[in-house]
């Protein structure tokens, strides 16, 4: 069940706004740098919105989302999810005006980063490296590189402004400038300049990092208010997000990065963090991390779990897939191949994190604790077509598939027993995996109910038979007396 209708309806109107339309260079950046991270559908949505802007126009006419669905050939829930990707990576800002009967959405397109900005970004450059691999990443980076001018071998002869232009007399300049400024400012009230803005960094919420614990762990002689500027806190939050660092680990690395015991150099901190990660995990870059199950798709968000099944739903909803794999392996490092499988489930099959948790747990518990990639992709394709959004839906589907799997196995065993001429079904000795309780408790409950029901019917039938025999005996006795 999709809940996008709570946020967006086909009849809702929208218009597009931008400070600067995408240029040819932006198209190259979107295709080569952003697309590997957000997918072709999100880039297509960005370009479709940009095409709504007429030549020399920075606001589009109003349209409705039903028209957008027809143009893109996509369902509304898919457009909604692709829009969120654009927002998350910094390519779109969305505003909503609630009106009677429908809503008006203002989609403000943000210019993509310049190649230099992108490759210097701690978050995006690392994730792009992970998606493309070393060789492809290097070739992509080279496409945006150009040779610098060797200033030591030549002399710059560029003319300066005052060499080309003459200056007005001071009295003329002041008068004309003052009159012009007053006239222009009166005409431009409520307007802003069209400009070529710098690309927007993806927004990272600093509240996800415990800065209070970090401050408490730093030595008393370090003046935290001096070293933890807003710029430094932003860099710390980003590095902690990418390299999965906690406040205590970050505290140690900050202390190693202080210059003269007073100044925190961001570049030095970045180097220390990267060295720490290589020492702990080897040369492979961090994989793209994912958040836990979205709050709008949680059913245990404001409810205290009571039953065993509710506790499992709460666990799946509040745990990221990578953390689930770590908990299954008792905290051991998760292999990169397994992390890539998780990435594909979220990026390619568009499954929610909680749904991925159910899928991982189900496959591992039914396959000797192995992540069978072929089996996972087969089930993921089915679940993706079902458009599962809640953990409960995924668990119910897993129960159905497990039941079908068991029925097929019993049918195959019966056929094999009949082929061998044995009157009893063939039951090979196979190792039984310990399945999750939520997966089996319903089946066990049904079997128990079925067994109890059978016993009750047998008891009733027995009583009926005994009553029949008693009456028959009485009838014979009566006929003998007569």
From TrEMBL:
Domain DnaB/C C-terminal, first and last residues per copy: 339-395
A Pfam family matched in the record: DnaB_2
Annotated spans, Disordered: 401-482
Domain of life (superkingdom): Bacteria
Compositional bias of kind Polar residues: 414-423
Biased composition annotated in UniProt, kind: Basic and acidic residues: 401-413, 430-469
Annotated InterPro entries: DnaB/C_C (IPR006343), WHD_DnaB (IPR058660)
Domain Replicative helicase loading/DNA remodeling protein DnaB N-terminal winged helix, first and last residues per copy: 10-272
Family affiliation: Belongs to the DnaB/DnaD family.
The protein's name: Replication initiation and membrane attachment family protein
Native source species: Thalassorhabdus alkalitolerans
């Amino acid at each position: 069940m999709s809940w996008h209708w709570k946020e967006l309806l086909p009849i809702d109107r929208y218009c597009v706004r931008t400070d600067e339309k995408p240029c040819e260079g932006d198209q190259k950046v979107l295709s080569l740098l952003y697309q590997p991270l957000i997918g072709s559908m999100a880039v297509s949505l960005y370009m479709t919105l940009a095409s709504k802007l007429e030549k020399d126009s920075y606001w589009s006419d109003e349209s409705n989302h039903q028209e957008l669905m027809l143009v893109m050939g996509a369902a509304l829930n898919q457009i909604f999810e692709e829009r969120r990707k654009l927002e998350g990576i910094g390519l779109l800002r969305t505003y909503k005006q609630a009106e009677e009967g429908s809503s008006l959405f203002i989609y403000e397109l943000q210019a993509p980063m310049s190649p230099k900005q992108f490759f210097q970004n701690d978050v995006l450059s690392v994730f792009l490296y992970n998606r493309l691999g070393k060789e492809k990443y290097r070739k992509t980076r080279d496409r945006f590189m150009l040779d610098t001018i060797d200033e030591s071998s030549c002399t710059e002869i560029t003319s300066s402004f005052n060499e080309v232009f003459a200056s007005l007399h001071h009295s003329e300049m002041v008068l004309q400038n003052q009159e012009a400024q007053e006239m222009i400012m009166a005409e431009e009230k409520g307007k802003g300049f069209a400009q070529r803005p710098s690309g927007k960094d993806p927004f990272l919420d600093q509240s996800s990092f415990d800065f209070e614990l970090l401050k408490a762990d730093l030595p008393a002689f370090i003046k935290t208010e001096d070293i933890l500027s807003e710029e430094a806190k932003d860099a710390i939050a980003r590095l902690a997000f990418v390299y999965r660092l906690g406040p205590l680990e970050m505290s140690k690395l900050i202390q190693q990065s202080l210059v003269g015991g007073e100044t925190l150099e961001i570049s030095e901190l970045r180097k220390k963090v990267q060295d720490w990660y290589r020492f702990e995990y080897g040369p492979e870059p961090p994989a793209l991390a994912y958040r836990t199950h979205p709050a709008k798709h949680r059913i245990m968000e404001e409810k205290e779990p009571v039953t065993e099944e509710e506790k499992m739903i709460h666990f799946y909803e509040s745990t990221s897939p990578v953390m689930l794999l770590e908990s299954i392996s008792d905290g051991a490092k998760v292999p990169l191949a397994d992390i890539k499988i998780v990435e594909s489930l979220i990026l390619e099959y568009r499954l929610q994190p909680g749904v991925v948790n159910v899928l991982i747990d189900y496959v591992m518990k039914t396959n000797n604790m192995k992540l069978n990639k072929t089996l996972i992709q087969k089930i993921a394709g089915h679940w993706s077509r079902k458009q599962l959004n809640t953990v409960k839906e995924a668990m119910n589907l897993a129960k159905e598939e497990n039941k079908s799997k068991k029925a097929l196995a019993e049918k195959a065993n019966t056929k094999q027993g009949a082929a061998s001429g044995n009157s009893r079904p063939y039951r090979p000795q196979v190792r039984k995996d310990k399945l999750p309780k939520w997966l089996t408790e319903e089946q066990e409950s049904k079997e128990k109910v079925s067994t109890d029901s059978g016993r009750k019917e047998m008891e009733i039938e027995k009583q009926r038979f005994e009553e029949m025999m008693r009456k028959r005996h009485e009838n014979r006795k009566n006929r003998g007396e007569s």
